[in-house]
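User: Structure please.
Assistant: Input sequence and predicted structure:
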Amino acid sequence: MLEVNKWKIIGRGDERICYLHPNDPARCIKLSRRSKAKQTHRELRYFRYLQRRGVPFTLIPEFFGVVEDEELIGIEQQLIVDERGDSLPSLAEYLAMPLTPQQITRFRAGLEALKAYLLAYNVVPCDLVMSNLLVIERPDITTVVLIDGLGASELVPLPEYISWLGRRKIQRKWARFMDKTVKPHFAANQECQSL
């Protein structure tokens, strides 16, 4: 039996609670009740598939395995934090900050790098939303990492296995995400109109 009542909660979603790993501060565990674990089962299957394909876990958290007992099932993965071990801003939190033109330029490059990564490795997002993205800002580079909402939601997830279908789905989701989420934050800034 997992002693989750002794674990530190670091995040909460509709289906899952994210805990700091009790024995490793560089990892987290996302747990669902078995009766409400659709997203967890999808992501477990998908992370295993990505591992088999040899996809580098550079802009998504590294996957370490399944954690389970009779009532709960979850994913053990890398906890994405800054160099000091502090939490990072979500995309929504980052965009709410006053940003300099230089920060905006590096942020744009970080977004483009994430999109290129998803397309290059056919990493299909299910939920491309601001709360599933973290922003790592360093002096010379800004990195955007997708931490949740991975794997195709179709009953038969063909976009994961057929690259051209995956690329089409990624392009479609990315365009919708940019148009409805990111671009409105920069509507007044001409430099970001081409995002």
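Residues 190-194 have pLDDT under 50 and may be disordered.
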